[in-house]
Amino acid sequence: MVESILQTLLLLAYFDIALLSITIANYAVSASYLGRESRLSRWRMERRRQKLRVRLKELDNENAEIESIKKEIEEAESDERELSRSIFILSWQGAVVLPSLCFVVSFICAIVGMNSEIIWSGANQENLGQLMVSSAFFMGMGFFVLLIVIRTIDSAARKVPIPEFEVTFENLQKTLKLKRNESTEITLFVCNKGEDIAENLQIFVNFPDAFKVYPMGYIVAKQHAKADYPNYNAAIFNVELIHSEVTTEFGIKLTTPDEKRIYEIPIHVREKKIGVSKHKLAIEVVD
Q1: Cα–Cα distance measured from residue 131 to residue 284, given in angstroms and rounded to the nearest whole number
Q2: pLDDT value at 133 more than 70
Q3: pTM above 0.85, yes or no
């Protein structure tokens, strides 16, 4: 029985050495994501705080839902704790020191057990059993932490920051009312609400054939028969970049049709990293 325990302790020691090697190699991967995640976490926390400040101002309003605001505060605090945990796990302390400490303690227990004859002048089965359990426990703890680190690395690798667009008219409206047969200039707002800079953008604002669109610092092109919106008049804007949390305005000069109804305005935003994102606005032609 004692011989079997000694063999188990030897295997545990070998496992500890192997897992220590994996832990060091693992940090090389986690460190590559640490800087990006730290920057994004600070940005996400600040954006969360800004939204909360806006919501807290609503407390001055008698109709403000206090319970809803309390829930948002709790969610924000929970998000901040989660982001802080992710940063800690990807750091040197979380990715290396914490699991390595467990493996080292496990290794020491195994070494003490294998040299018990020297330390205690004889191998005691009960003491050896306790050391084996302790070694296995700490190795399991270290392995569990190592799995958490790997899971966090995988999550960071999947959450690649990308641009995300919101397209509206003035005052965040999705529908704009215009008089029929009216020559006017409308303003389109494109906001990058994502976590990364949008680069090499091409924005297609497609108007039905009944609209007359005039070139004014942008290209106006008739869409061909095989396009997504055949015969539409597209106002095309070429933009070098739009920073995160930045809204860019685009003015379009047009003449509305004579027929009174709601016209759908499809908008395609082409970007270097995400390809095409599709949006839809509407113009209601009235008297």
Answers
A1: 79
A2: yes
A3: no
